[in-house]
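Spend some time on the protein that follows and explain the fold to me:
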Amino acid sequence: MTPELDEIDLDTVRLGRTGLRTSELQFGTWRFGRVTEAGNVEIDKARAHELLDGYEAAGGRYIDTADVYGGGDCERWIGDWLAERDRERYTIASKVFWQIRDGDPNSRGTNRKNVRHRVDALLDRLDTDYVDVLYIHRWDDETPARELMKTLNGLVESGKVHYLGASTLRPNAWKVARANEIARNEGWEPFKLLQPRYNLVDREVEGDYLEFARQQGLAVSPWSPLGQGFLTGKYDRDEDLPEESKAVESSRFREAYLTPENFDAHDELDAVADEVGATPAQTALAWLSHRDGVTAPIVGARTTDQLAENLAAAEIDLSDEQVGRLTAAKPSPYDGL
């Protein structure tokens, strides 16, 4: 049985070598203000605040957003929610990269003009003087790494940003390594956090990426820890697709997730979930939290019931044997290399 949100007590973890301690499960807000293909707002302001209240009740303090989520409404709603609280008690992370103005090529990427403008704008929406973590949402090959790191260092020195992170750079850990070498040689702030996609069936970060993070002491906070809903148990290989599901909207999702090998891995997930008296989603999150090199997965939810289910994963302890079985359920692409 899933506990109530106020019955959950999330622990804290240290974010790599930042010295910052924050929630062992981070709250992702990408659905706040998101407009679906049908033209509906997936999570409106009232529901967003209800979810933030629930996360707070469970002891959660790390809120992950981006300046493009909900066209900026996501950050505005978080800012409104924070206005009634002690800002210092929360860790707020945001991201910049994607184009925000049609016809303006400089409103995309990590050039100095765009980054400085975007950070000022997101701080205004969040109604705060600083963000704890600023991620680059993607790597921009058109902006020299030296320009990027000098710009980001200036934001740290100004107090607008505390720590720097890089999101979704699975095959490009070497670019982060090169940028960090430039930063350290110049006495600038390096990237200290990474945010890749990683879950039981998406294993492409295993190998050099996680090894690089371990060696450098970088925090790793995976997004999509439930494989865009695949690992929740809502799909069955022998049944029709649920009407309200990612699979109905996206052929890419069906091709990536609804495969025989992924369903085989899910069978093992179901078996372990039964053994520990948990849901598949909770077990998948627990597995990820047990992985060497993972700091704090990012969880999302559409409802407070889903949020409670996901956050309760922090209280599930898997044996080494169970972790090993889940790990072997879908071999890593790096096995045998």
In short: The chain has twelve helices and ten strands. Residues 247 and 254 are 5 Å apart (CA to CA). The mean pLDDT is 93. Strands lie at 12-14, 21-23, 26-28, 62-64, 91-96, 131-136, 161-167, 191-195, 219-220, 298-299.
